[in-house]
Amino acid sequence: MNNEMNTPQPQSTSPFDRWQSAKEWLRQNLKGDIVIWIIVALLSLTSMLIVYSATGTLAYQRGGGYPESFLFKHAFFTGIGLLVMWAVHRINYTYFSRLSRAALLISIPLLILVKVAGVTINGATRWLAIPGTGLTFQPADFARLALIANLAAMLAKRQRVQYDWQIFGKMILWVGIICFFIALTSTSTAVLLGFSCFLMLYIGRVPGKYLAVMVVSIGIAGATGLVVGQRLDTAQGRIERFLKRDEYQAKQGFIAIANGGTLGQGLGKSHQRNYLTQAYSDFIYAIIIEEYGIIGGIIIMILYAILLVRGVQNINETNRAFGGLLSAGLMLSIGLQAFTNMAVAVGIFPVTGQPLPLLSMGGTSVLFTCISLGIVLSVSRGDIEETNL
């Protein structure tokens, strides 16, 4: 009896203690800008709801399959992407400066290969098949990441050096080459990347006369790629239909937005998902507004705006120019893509085929977005021992 009385009893853990333990675990494992972590989590969770709703018609068109199959696929890639983002954010971001030039050299043959042996999806040949996996990826995503990292490294090394045409010529050369090859298969991606690079040069305090030359050079490279590539007729047709307001997808998107009103139709009650062929990708923002209303659409827009601001603010919060420029460039790229997608949905821009980062259903595109965000978080950590670049 006495032995039983002396036996220590297990101590119960209060909700407060569990909350403190969870906070400590998060503090130890999720470093960097907590606001970015929260927004990424919110957008990822929202994507599960909206992709599940938007893929109902797609499942029916593909033989009466279950929408859950697309949800599981999207959840799988999102989960892998978040794991990769967590792993990347623990890496010293200065390593990406050393890898950027090699990555650029690798990206060029990949961009050429997609032109001659790419996989065509929805009328566009932008993907390469990964042998033995059944998966595809866009070399443009890899090239964009490599170019931004390399441009940030070149700008960082010259923050205290007076610019001349020899120094600036190397920057123009790389930006022009990559934008040219991307424009062969994706005009909008080349334009957005070129604009991101221009903004990086502006933030990097490049003199105005060089910026003017950059604009002309990017324009020539992109236009040449468009003319000799595969998207000239598509681009012309989209612009003409945009000016005439005669684009089928855009019309269906407008109807979805009109149906949404202020508060929306409710989760899973979209009607236009039955008519929008890219309801789960290019026009997912229209479905968001239809189901969650203008208020939901504004909240999504605000989240992306905060994400963009937090990434650009790293310029003032890091001790190295490379880290700030890298973070700003990557977040500008993600932000421009997001706002382009939303602008297309509401009729400001012609149809571009750009997905909404973290929200649209995707595979390797989600992965590259998460890699970019992981690098931004690495820069925002502020406790990494930095090395000279």
UniProtKB/TrEMBL annotation:
<keyword id="KW-0132">Cell division</keyword>
<feature type="transmembrane region" description="Helical">
    <location>
        <begin position="250"/>
        <end position="268"/>
    </location>
</feature>
<feature type="transmembrane region" description="Helical">
    <location>
        <begin position="103"/>
        <end position="122"/>
    </location>
</feature>
<dbReference type="GO" id="GO:0032153">
    <property type="term" value="C:cell division site"/>
</dbReference>
<keyword id="KW-0808">Transferase</keyword>
<dbReference type="GO" id="GO:0005886">
    <property type="term" value="C:plasma membrane"/>
</dbReference>
<dbReference type="GO" id="GO:0008955">
    <property type="term" value="F:peptidoglycan glycosyltransferase activity"/>
</dbReference>
<keyword id="KW-1133">Transmembrane helix</keyword>
<feature type="transmembrane region" description="Helical">
    <location>
        <begin position="171"/>
        <end position="204"/>
    </location>
</feature>
<keyword id="KW-0131">Cell cycle</keyword>
<feature type="transmembrane region" description="Helical">
    <location>
        <begin position="210"/>
        <end position="229"/>
    </location>
</feature>
<keyword id="KW-0573">Peptidoglycan synthesis</keyword>
<dbReference type="GO" id="GO:0051301">
    <property type="term" value="P:cell division"/>
</dbReference>
<dbReference type="GO" id="GO:0008360">
    <property type="term" value="P:regulation of cell shape"/>
</dbReference>
<dbReference type="GO" id="GO:0009252">
    <property type="term" value="P:peptidoglycan biosynthetic process"/>
</dbReference>
<protein>
    <recommendedName>
        <fullName>Probable peptidoglycan glycosyltransferase FtsW</fullName>
        <ecNumber>2.4.99.28</ecNumber>
    </recommendedName>
</protein>
<dbReference type="GO" id="GO:0015648">
    <property type="term" value="F:lipid-linked peptidoglycan transporter activity"/>
</dbReference>
<feature type="transmembrane region" description="Helical">
    <location>
        <begin position="359"/>
        <end position="379"/>
    </location>
</feature>
<keyword id="KW-0133">Cell shape</keyword>
<keyword id="KW-0328">Glycosyltransferase</keyword>
<comment type="similarity">
    <text>Belongs to the SEDS family. FtsW subfamily.</text>
</comment>
<dbReference type="InterPro" id="IPR001182">
    <property type="entry name" value="FtsW/RodA"/>
</dbReference>
<feature type="transmembrane region" description="Helical">
    <location>
        <begin position="283"/>
        <end position="309"/>
    </location>
</feature>
<keyword id="KW-0472">Membrane</keyword>
<feature type="transmembrane region" description="Helical">
    <location>
        <begin position="321"/>
        <end position="339"/>
    </location>
</feature>
<feature type="transmembrane region" description="Helical">
    <location>
        <begin position="34"/>
        <end position="54"/>
    </location>
</feature>
<feature type="transmembrane region" description="Helical">
    <location>
        <begin position="74"/>
        <end position="91"/>
    </location>
</feature>
<feature type="transmembrane region" description="Helical">
    <location>
        <begin position="142"/>
        <end position="159"/>
    </location>
</feature>
<keyword id="KW-0812">Transmembrane</keyword>
<dbReference type="Pfam" id="PF01098">
    <property type="entry name" value="FTSW_RODA_SPOVE"/>
</dbReference>
